[in-house]
């Protein structure tokens, strides 16, 4: 897969490894997330929604058989929310409002089935981003540890300079902003 955002991308020669040609693809599944050539996350979100909808059936069945509300919430967290949040720190910043709304509708549906309030997709993203950033800060051997540079006051982190919206909405600038707030 080739990711190239130049206005006039150059023609690439076919790539061969050990005398066998490597095919070009438009999207690729890596560590459970579908990455597309244009770095849009619609196909990944479609796959997440499909899995979540399949698991919502089991939530409905549990409710139908009279499972208590707190067990339904636990089941939702383990079975549905875990799917909705898979790699959320990677794709959420670049997801379109339409895709975020589609995912949020799944959460609203689960709220109606369970009869209890559940955390929104935005809240889940903020929580996961904060937790991951704190784990990176605690681990000096992490490759990104140096990106979290404390200012002389010792209370806030140095903001990363970003030139593009894509970079501004990515994990590290967002995590620093969340930690500073």
TrEMBL record:
Domain Alkylated DNA repair protein AlkB homologue 8 N-terminal stretches: 41-82
Domain of life according to the entry: Eukaryota
Record-linked InterPro entries: AlkB_hom8_N
Entries under Pfam families matching the protein: ALKBH8_N (PF09004)
Protein name stated in the entry: Alkylated DNA repair protein AlkB homologue 8 N-terminal domain-containing protein
């Amino acid at each position: 897969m080739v990711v190239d955002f130049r206005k006039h991308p150059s023609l690439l020669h076919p790539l061969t490894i050990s005398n066998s040609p490597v095919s070009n693809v438009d999207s690729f599944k890596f560590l459970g997330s579908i990455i597309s050539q244009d770095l849009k996350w619609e196909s990944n979100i479609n796959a997440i929604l499909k899995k979540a909808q399949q698991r919502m059936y089991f939530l409905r069945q549990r409710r139908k058989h009279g499972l208590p509300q707190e067990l339904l919430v636990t089941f939702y967290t383990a079975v549905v929310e875990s799917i909705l949040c898979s790699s959320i720190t990677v794709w959420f910043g670049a997801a379109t409002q339409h895709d975020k709304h589609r995912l949020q509708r799944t959460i609203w549906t689960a709220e109606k089935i369970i009869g209890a309030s559940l955390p929104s997709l935005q809240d889940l993203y903020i929580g996961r981003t904060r937790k991951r950033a704190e784990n990176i800060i605690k681990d000096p051997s992490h490759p990104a540890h140096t990106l979290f540079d404390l200012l002389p006051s010792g209370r806030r982190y140095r903001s990363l300079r970003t030139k593009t919206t894509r970079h501004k909405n990515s994990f590290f600038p967002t995590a620093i902003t969340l930690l500073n707030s």
